[in-house]
Amino acid sequence: MGEVIRKDAPADDIIGDVRATLQSASAKGGPLRELAEQRLVPVLTLFDGVEAQRNAARSEAEPLLAKVEAESARADDALGKVADDVWNAVGRPSADPALSILFPGGVAYFADNEDGDLTGQPDRLEVLAQLLGSGIHPKLSLDKAQAAAAEVKSAAAAVRSTVEATRLPLERLSVLDRIRASVAKSAHIELVHLKRLYRAAGFSEAEIHAVIPDRGRARRRL
Fold it and tell me: Model-level pTM?
């Protein structure tokens, strides 16, 4: 017995089967076409509308994300320069407890994020700027400490500006992703209902799956 695509399949695969079903049913005509159009056209229209909005949201978000990455890279460069300047200013020590307070484990924590999320970088840089400006290192003169803090604070502000510009577009994209997945689940339900209608109309399993793609597992040959 044939099977429709599973309900937890990727949205693109589900919608692909729905489109293929509608195309095959339209080619065959008659009740096969009428029932398919009745069940599938509304959900496909809904999906296409969501997809158009999602594509627009992605087109808006992608260049903004590119700006965040570029600004973050500039901040990383500034951070590296500040770290070198501070290290030179305190005598290029091989080990320095006070320096490890400013840069615990080096500059990587302030530059990178394990999951690739750059939204927290401005806050991390702000904290570093506060530490630098507080004169926490006894060998770092106040004027050099404040100059270093100003550089880091400027980098933080630049990254924050680009990050803030992405928040709404990314949230919009996230919501539309969820809606898209939900509509795909509805499309799967419509495909299942269509198969039931075909059965009720007297079509055989072979006739049904000549229209609806058969996603049943292949049986192992003995």
Answer: 0.78
Has residue 218 been placed in a domain? no
215 located within any domain: no
Task: Give the residue carrying structure tokens 């490890």.
Answer: 100
Rg (CA), the chain: 29
Nearest Cα neighbor of 154 from 99, 78, 86, 83 is 78
* Domain annotation covers residue 216: no
Q: How many domains does the chain have?
A: 1
pLDDT in tens, the chain (222 residues): 789 999 999 999 999 999 999 999 999 999 999 999 999 999 999 999 999 999 999 999 999 999 999 999 999 999 999 999 999 999 898 888 888 888 887 888 888 665 566 788 999 999 999 999 988 888 889 999 999 999 999 999 999 999 999 999 999 999 999 999 999 999 999 999 999 999 999 999 999 999 999 998 644 444
